[in-house]
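QUALITY CONTROL LOG
STEP: pairwise intake check
CHECKER ROLE: data steward
CRITERIA: each record must contain a sequence immediately followed by its structure tokens, with no blank fields

ENTRY 1 OF 2
RESULT FIELD BELOW
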Amino acid sequence: MSGIQRAALVLIIIGALNWGLIGFFQFDLVAAIFGGQSAVLSRVVYGLIGIAGLITLGLLFKSKKY
């Protein structure tokens, strides 16, 4: 796994935890940290998490080499 894939995986885990908080407690941690959902920095974080999802999508179809 490359460094970019590892970084993308970390961002996806952050996004998943954020969605869990939204689902269970109606609390958006990213928005709380970066100044609301419409704040520029929050939108950048949301965008990076989306790009990370696209990057790691390839891991689903990658065959294991032993």
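ENTRY 2 OF 2
RESULT FIELD BELOW
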Amino acid sequence: MTRTVEFYFDFSSPYSYIGYKEILQLEKKNSFKIKFMPIFLGGLHNSAGVTPAAFISLKSKYMVKDTKLVTEKKNIKFIFNSYFPIKTVNFMRGVLIAEKDSFEKIYIEKIFNAIWRDGLNMNDPIVINKVHKNMDLNPEIFLSKATDQKIKDKLKKVTAEALKKGIFGAPTFLVNKKIFWGQDRLYYALDETKK
């Protein structure tokens, strides 16, 4: 029986990028399927009372060095984005649109790469438009869909449901109703798929 790993992520998180790259490789070699669960990390942190590392000076400095160390060890192409933090709420809503229109995997790959592999300024509307055009998306139409109230409400709902399950950060892997927080817990999550 093929197990599902729910992957809760936000493009704003460099550790989500690392977890994404790793789980994608492992999915090809193992008998599990990834269910992508986009969340709005800022809203989740606020609701959970969590202060993100980006807003704690010592932690943010450490995070830059740590992500470099981890990606080098895992041979993952990575640049700590100099425009960090990136405002990702519309990109997270974009995942919901992409899922509905069956190009979810392409969309997730392109946005993650733009931010954390290529180091693009994804706070700049001109850059965002170029990335969208490279996916054959009309930027204006895509933005209007992303700001539609139904899509906004859906992302809020998925994020609220994640909090109810006990999820407080990203990336988080959920298997058999068990939570594994952090990209370094991925293998524990995969062990759980074998039970």
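INTAKE CHECK: passed for both entries
DESCRIPTIVE NOTE, ENTRY 2: The chain has one domain: 3-193.
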